[in-house]
Design the sequence.
């Protein structure tokens, strides 16, 4: 699903009005209808106090129109107009008149002393600001927002949590609605998925208000949300007359004394995701452990006992996954540097492999184009420098990826894969996956997919999704806390099965 900027949403709005020859308030009516249906289907007439806080723009207009529908269906409502500007939108004014026609009189909030009481049992509808927010709210509006947040009431935000700008960090983190639920029109917003702004959104859902589908299909978006419909077409089925050579020979280079487990996890994940063969290159000390733990993996060792040195491999791997548990010993750094100069295979680079690159930036020119880098935020910062906001982070990562023609997988609650000026936002995964070795498993998965012929950016997008899905399935079996990295590997097969599972209706038809 595409993620549009505010500007693109306004354009989609305009093109819909033109194409369908409707009035803008018709679109507002559709939006309000969808909001009403959502609420009504859950409340079914329950007598709970619904307090609607409406701004003076179109977001407020949505709230006022919703208030009318709730009133017409007998709900107990209280409407407030948050009067932060004289520039009221036409559709807001129109809907205000319609509400007054029903003898519903809103209270106007103009200053801090006007704040009403909100009980924890109330439902608050937050329609103060939408995507038109373009500067810091006045302090008294900020106080109202903080007052709503402190009320412990269920807060339903219309389109976006009020106070949250779409393309920059909030001016004051306390002046943003903490939404229990966000009903977002047509497309989700990028801010729902970024670490600093996603915290304002507990749950979200998209409401289809019928914005021009041609416009949406033909407009290039900077970001895309990656769910099952986006991932399924990337899947490469295994053909009947294939053999292990068809699925590639991966080389995993990594490990150091006490960190051989990282290679065990990565190479096991690499095999489990379907790489035809996997060879691990590790320091001598890990030989017995690795051969015993994963007998399917072939093992080569360097000359040193505790650290990687002189990476000599007697075959041309299809793909190389390098860096897990590798450390930063001087011999390892020179071995990595020399290996980069002679290596011809595409690469996945993780962990200390990335830190070595950050400290020896001249090595970057030898990294094969289209290689996949999988940094967590600290590793990313070492690579691209400090950022002030999530938006700046994404811009810097995009620029870095473009400059070196690389794929960058920014790991996080919603991992974002950046390539060729675009970002792909993952939807699977859970907090249980914040556990040692989880990243090693991801490196193995992406490497193993590239070995099977997935293009690097597809391997990254597909691999991140599958890794998260394995985590979700592992969490339902074991719970968040007990979700170890090895459990992720165990669930890779289930994740494939879940991804490829036919919807029940289709299954009935084919049975
Ligand atoms: N797009 C669609 O398809 C549909 C969109 N719909 C709805 O419209 C919403 C967008 O509406 P909107 O453009 O009127 O903006 P909104 O967020 O209500 O803000 C109002 C105005 O406030 C101003 N302002 C900004 N910051 C401020 C501040 N800090 N303090 C004081 N004032 C401030 C600024 O005006 P300015 O003063 O800059 O001229 C701004 O224009 C959208 O989120 C959705 O709910 C649906 O109805 C149907 C289909
Ligand atoms: K809102």
Sequence:
């Amino acid at each position: 699903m595409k993620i549009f900027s505010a500007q693109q949403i306004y354009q989609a709005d305009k093109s819909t009005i033109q194409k369908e020859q409707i009035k803008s308030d018709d679109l507002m009516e559709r939006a309000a209808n969808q909001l009403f249906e959502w609420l009504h289907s859950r409340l079914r007439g329950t007598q709970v106090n619904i307090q609607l806080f409406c701004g003076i723009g179109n977001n407020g207009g949505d709230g006022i129109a919703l208030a009318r529908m709730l009133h017409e269906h007998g709900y107990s409502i209280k409407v407030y107009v948050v009067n932060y500007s004289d520039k009221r939108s036409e559709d807001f004014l129109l809907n205000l008149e319609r509400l007054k026609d029903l003898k519903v009189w809103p209270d106007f909030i103009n200053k801090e002393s006007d704040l009403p009481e909100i009980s924890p049992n109330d439902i608050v509808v937050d329609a103060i600001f939408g995507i038109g927010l373009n500067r810091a709210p006045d302090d008294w509006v900020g106080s109202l927002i903080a007052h709503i947040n402190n009320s412990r009431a269920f807060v339903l935000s219309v389109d976006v949590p009020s106070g949250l700008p779409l393309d920059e960090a909030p001016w004051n983190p306390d002046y943003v609605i903490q939404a229990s639920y966000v009903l977002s029109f047509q497309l989700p917003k990028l801010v729902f998925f970024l670490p600093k702004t996603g915290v304002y959104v507990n749950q979200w859902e998209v409401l289809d208000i019928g914005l021009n589908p041609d416009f949406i299909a033909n407009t290039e978006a900077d970001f895309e949300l990656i769910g099952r419909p986006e991932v399924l077409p990337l899947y490469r089925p295994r053909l009947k007359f294939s053999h292990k050579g068809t699925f590639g020979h991966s080389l995993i280079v990594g490990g150091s004394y006490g960190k051989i487990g990282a290679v065990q996890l990565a190479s096991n994940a690499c095999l489990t995701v379907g790489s035809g063969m996997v060879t691990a290159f590790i320091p001598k000390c890990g030989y017995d452990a690795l051969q015993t733990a994963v007998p399917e993996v072939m093992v080569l060792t360097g000359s040193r006992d505790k650290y990687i040195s002189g990476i000599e491999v007697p075959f041309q791997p299809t793909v190389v996954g390098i860096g897990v548990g590798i450390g930063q010993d001087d011999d390892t750094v020179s071995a990595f540097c020399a290996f980069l100069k002679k290596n011809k295979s595409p690469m996945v680079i993780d962990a200390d492999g990335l830190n070595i690159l950050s400290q020896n930036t001249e090595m970057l020119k030898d990294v094969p184009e289209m290689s996949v880098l999988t940094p967590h935020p600290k590793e990313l910062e070492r690579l691209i420098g400090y950022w002030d906001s999530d938006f700046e982070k994404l811009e810097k990562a995009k620029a870095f990826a473009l400059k070196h023609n690389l794929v960058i997988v920014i790991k996080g609650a919603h991992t974002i894969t950046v390539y060729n000026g675009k970002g792909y936002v993952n939807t699977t995964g859970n907090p249980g996956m914040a556990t040692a070795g989880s990243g090693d498993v991801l490196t193995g998965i992406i490497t193993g997919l590239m070995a099977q012929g997935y293009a690097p950016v597809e391997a990254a997008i597909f691999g991140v999704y599958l890794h998260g899905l394995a985590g979700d399935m592992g969490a339902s079996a074991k719970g968040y806390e007990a979700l170890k990295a090895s459990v992720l590997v165990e669930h890779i097969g289930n994740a494939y099965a879940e991804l490829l599972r036919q919807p029940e209706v289709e299954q009935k038809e084919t049975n």
Q: What stands out?
A: The longest helix spans residues 456-478. Residues 244-499 form a domain with the UDP-N-acetylmuramoyl-L-alanine:D-glutamate ligase fold (CATH 3.40.1190.20). The first strand starts at residue 2 and ends at 3.
